[in-house]
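Researcher: Go.
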Amino acid sequence: MRSSHVERSLGQFWEEDMSCITWLDRQPPCSVIYVAFGSFTLFNPNQFKELALGLELTNRPFLWVVRSDVNNSTKNEYPDKFQGKLGKIVQWAPQRQVLSHPATACFISHCGWNSVLEGLSNGVPFLCWPYNCDQFFNKYYICDEWKVGLGFDSDEKGIVSNGEIKKKVEQLLNDQIIRDRSMKLKEMLKSEIAEGGRSWKNFNKFVKWLKE
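Model: Structure:
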């Protein structure tokens, strides 16, 4: 049973659409692709369309955060073939509740540090799509050091294709080793927090160093 206590994600300014939690309640366990790119990520229209088509191709339920301010400023439009019948699109989501929900299977993320912490602490595997700055460093740790996620490969034009999105979603969700490793890391973090041990102190130092 989920706690009734509502916590807002760090650095969040938009009103959260709580209807997505009711929608998640109706989805099968470990089935939903959660897609959110934080407060500053911008996609060009071609990339936006490829993402929409990629989510459609997975034939899985998805929860996609699409901010209206970004859509309006970049003139992003959904492609004609996009139906979105299996998905739910919101302007902002209560991210901590989404990531802790049993229906959530993976997190397509820009790898901002707040999102990384929230994903790791809930044992959710990542599909990494960094946008700038430290996000590429965070992706390295997720994919290469902790090995709890995968990255997307772009084509010669710098676009992540809809086929690549479909392929990586299937690869991640069929990899039980990554899922097990994600849950193990979640338990390690929970234990270190509870005990206030040396690893937790070092982790806090690491977080502080990244923010400086």
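Model: The chain has one domain: 19-211.
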